[in-house]
Amino acid sequence: MKTLRTFFQQRAPLFIVVVALIGIGWRLCASWRGGSANSAAQAPAQVFSFDAPPHILWPAPFQVTLISAKGRPIDANVTVEFVMPAMPMPKNVVALKEASPGHYTGTATLTMSGAWVAVITSTIPGKSTRVRRVPFNLP
What we know:
Layout: H1 2-30, E1 45-50, E2 60-67, E3 77-83, E4 93-95, E5 97-100, E6 103-108, E7 114-124, E8 128-138
Antiparallel strand pairs: 1-2, 2-6, 3-4, 3-7, 5-6, 7-8
């Protein structure tokens, strides 16, 4: 027992460094999770915005714009899931309608104030799916 304790005491700094490196690597990989295998040049640019500041339990129109790296509108199936990371909430997924080429609109009802994340999923039929998370705060 004493030799085992000595073993871990002598290697504690190494253990801390290894755990820190794993944490940093996990954090860096988080930006890669959820995206498509396409290169950045082929990936669509996504812009998310509310038409006006949203209010609790009030319909809030919003829009998502998808533009290719070449500046062309992207035809895709777009959904936005509104997630409150601080607590479990029922699913709040909105399927957007294309208002004009590359411009998608929808309406969400947010149930409480706090930190939210809009999880935008755009699927180009037969090609790729891209997920982007946009954090925002509802006062």
